[in-house]
Amino acid sequence: MSQDAQVIVVGAGPAGSTAATYLARAGVDVLLLEKTTFPREKVCGDGLTPRGVKQLIDLGIDTSRDAGWVHSRGLRILTGELTLELDWPELTSYPPYGVARTRQDFDDLLARTAVKAGARLQERTTVTGAITDERTGRVVGVEAKTGEDKRPVSYRAPLVLACDGVSARLALSAGIEKNEKRPMGVAVRRYYRSPRHDDEFIEGHLELWDRSDPRRPKLLPGYGWAFPLGDGTVNVGLGMLSTSAAFRNTDYRALLRTWLDSTPAEWGYREENAVGRIGGAGLPMGFNRTPHYRAGLLLLGDAGGMVSPFNGEGISAAMESAQLAAEHVVQALARPEGPSRERALSGYPRALAELMGGYYRLGNLFAKAIGKPAVMRAATKYGLRVNALIPLVYKGLSGCYDASGGDGVDRLISLLAKATPSA
Length: 423
Ligand SMILES: Cc1cc2nc3c(=O)[nH]c(=O)nc-3n(C[C@H](O)[C@H](O)[C@H](O)COP(=O)(O)OP(=O)(O)OC[C@H]3O[C@@H](n4cnc5c(N)ncnc54)[C@H](O)[C@@H]3O)c2cc1C
Known about the structure:
Blueprint: E1 7-10, H1 14-25, E2 30-33, E3 47-48, H2 50-59, E4 70-72, E5 74-78, E6 83-87, E7 98-100, H3 103-117, E8 120-122, E9 125-132, E10 139-146, E11 151-156, E12 159-162, H4 169-173, E13 184-193, E14 201-205, E15 208-210, E16 218-220, E17 223-228, E18 233-241, H5 252-261, E19 274-284, E20 293-294, E21 297-299, H6 315-333, H7 339-370, H8 373-381, H9 390-398, H10 408-419
Parallel strand pairs: 1-2, 1-12, 2-8, 5-14, 12-21
Antiparallel strand pairs: 3-7, 4-7, 5-6, 9-10, 10-11, 13-18, 13-19, 14-17, 15-16, 17-18, 20-21
Helix pairs in contact: 1-3, 1-6, 2-6, 6-7, 7-10, 9-10
């Protein structure tokens, strides 16, 4: 059967562009299909912890300030009563700094890296579904609409990577549904001109307060962030978990305005300093779409539900899954079609489970627990005051720990992750 590429990658976000880069560098003929044209906006917090920075370094991307990255030295945690400033931990696995960059720039840079490596990027091409071989049930290509005139086209390849984000249209077309028992998140964000744009810390607001009536401050549902972008603006947003009672009946845009109107005026998070509109999207968490490999189709990043239930970070997991997928696909393509190739591909979901499965199972429990306001309140009120607990909370929430070796806290997180049973 004729083929258009050895591998088709659907979606040129962090998962797709990273996978395409590694594959092309290994000499694989990759067709990277993307529905938009670069540079384009993507609603996000624009922040990477050191775990994400490692992925950029692995790709050979210069993450220095001179190359346009804003560095963070750590995380400032704020509750109604408490502010903690914590430097990123010193680890074997990850660098001691985080970065921020608008997704407008970030995704463009990653897509250009893939093209430079030899991937064939085709923009303005919306994939509408998988082509499945009726006889074998294998995914052997994709149907798409391309160009200004949305011309129907089809492309064939022995392997297809679904990197199309939270919509997961490709996986759905192949019958891979999401697991409703796993947590989901919703998040909204906006850019504000602010004197805090060059703050060295990124911020996590564990409590959002409405102080419009100073006599009766009201605790709002959800968690907030502020990620300085160094260009005069800060990316400010909030998110909520599906485990929270308010999840379904909240006007998220109104919630963001209410919260920000109660933050100190000198921070600048006010309507008159806003740049652009409020954008929002869903966060598919804790492996909410599996299997990550079936019959010629691999799921990566958000398409495979890989956002961390601990902190809503999804870029690092998207890139980690891309690294693993590329490694297994390269090995698979070097084998004859049939059982031997399938064996190589079956290593991908196993490697993913090994890397983040236990940590995400633990995260799913965490998401369930903090969905209850009383648990969350107790955790912020008392937990963060116990000095001995702070490194555990910090490393656990950020995903920045050494999975092998490391100190006692790192070993405890790994142990808890391994011991958490599947739900
Ligand atoms: C408000 C908000 C804030 C967030 N903040 C952060 C943060 O600060 N840090 C962090 O790490 N994560 C954050 N996340 C999560 C993060 O944005 C995602 O986890 C990450 O983008 C996943 O990467 P991906 O490559 O899997 O998918 P995406 O980035 O969604 O990329 C998918 C790509 O596929 C393309 N595409 C989609 N459908 C098709 C189709 N049918 N055909 C062709 N192309 C298609 C899209 O145009 C896009 O380019 C946030 C999410 C939200 C909603």
